[in-house]
Amino acid sequence: MNPGEFRPTTAFLDRDGTLIRDTGYVADPADVELLSGAAEAVRLLNEAGVPVVIVTNQSGIGRGYLDASAFRAVQARLESLLAEAGAWIDGTYYCPHAPAEGCECRKPGLGLYVIAAATLGVEMKGALYAGDRTRDVLPALSLGGMGMLVAGEGGEYDGPVSSDVVRAPDLLTGVRGLLLVPEDDP
Q: Which domains does the chain have, with CATH numbers?
């Protein structure tokens, strides 16, 4: 399926490296910096009636680099910045576990998606799964959605992935292509 031919039921977005600058275990709200076009991308999804859900691995909590209250403060800052741009997030789900714990909620595991779908009443099938890492888009392949791998800040992709996953230089470009919104449309 190609962008423009696909209308997502839900948008499951990664946070660090997709919406905000990935500075490595962001623990201070003052360090939250929206990536260029991220707020506009979320706003376009909001305007299209697509629920926007953040699904993020936060192993810094399990590693002891930050705690859940720091995560919530960073998330509140992100949501405040989005609100200033007329955009919002419908729900946020995070895995606090270190990779060695082997939990089912850590992406590419499906646990957080299942919880989000049940809690928010959103669809996993037909959803957009977008992020800057292969693990962010792999759930699309098993849940029947579209994966969108956005290039990292260095302009490179995380790694090889199925030809069923679209690539975009950033979230805004990908969402514009998906929703067929011209670049000059405010």
A: 11-179 (3.40.50.1000)
